[in-house]
Amino acid sequence: SSPAAPPARGSGGRAQLPSGLWGRGAPGLTPAPALTYPRLHRHLGHGDLAAFQELVEKQRNRPEGKVLETVGVFEAPKQHGKYETGQLFLHSVFGYRGIVLFPWQARLYDRDVASPVTEKSENAAGHGSKEVKGKTHTYYQVLIDARDCPHISQRSQTEAVTFLANHDDSRALYAIPGLDYVSHEDILPYSSTDQVPIQHELFERFLMYDQTKVPPFVARDTLCAWQEKNHPWLELSDVHRETTENIRVTVIPFYMGMREAQNSHVYWWRYCIRLENLDSEVVQLRERHWRIFSLSGTLETVRGRGVVGREPVLSKEQPAFQYSSHVSLQASSGHMWGTFRFERPDGSHFDVRIPPFSLESNKDEKTPPSGLHW
Questions:
Q1: What is the per-residue burial (b if ≥16 Cβ within 10 Å, else e) of 217-232?
Q2: pTM
Q3: Where is this region: Disordered (predicted)?
């Protein structure tokens, strides 16, 4: 990453916050501190600017050469409406810098919200289920600043969007690194005078600086064309969420497409999972237990240690972990559910439910995904 700017000198030679940076719409928290780097996600995770400011005070005494770098100025989070293409933000949970490419309207099925509908009996897949009504919720396709990826690797995979190859190898997957999907409430908006505030290979392909606009980064034609051509495998439609013993599991499935293999059709999905510890007690994920039901009539059980080769610890300092994985079926639809087993400091274990989610194919898909081609 680029070197930090040298500290401004004041009494005692300590780095000083820039003057004149006033918060907008944040009563009692003005003047607002400049956004600084490296990661302050634990304090920003709940929008706690007071704690953030306290940490900045402590950072003033860092050794020479270890100063914080100013990256922008906080804006008031939007309570209503959507963020526009080009909005700069910090992720409130994972702390990375990013920029909004475009919004998606998703249906959020939150099993923590009481429903007037009564419990359903065992369904066709053989597991109990609540009837949960979906509410419309805004998510954003975003670019992650490549400089921040090393700092979030312990609590999130360097998120990538995967897609299927266009040739005959039905198992070939390609990835575009540094793309993520972010919920509206996870965005801490900020502004910057930097004309290239995000380092990502797609930034200047997709966005251009226009000082007459707010935010001053607007979509190029290439971004619009890419979204239109590739929305079948980019599109986010359903989000599922459930909390067990203060561990919240959020699942977002994505349909990736169908490929032919050995005279049969194979349907592929990607699913992104976020685990959040809403309590102060440290816990560690030890095992996963999946049930995968296919419309073809098969029911598969998958057990294993950890997830993606990791057994993440969820603590007050690092309360969340996010990862993605894939599943394929020889049918156009199915669903998945299961549990994660966590361990407490005293060695006891408890199971956390993974909310059931559907695997649905896009019936109107006419052309295969085309990756990064315009």
A1: bebeeebeebbeebeb
A2: 0.77
A3: 1-25
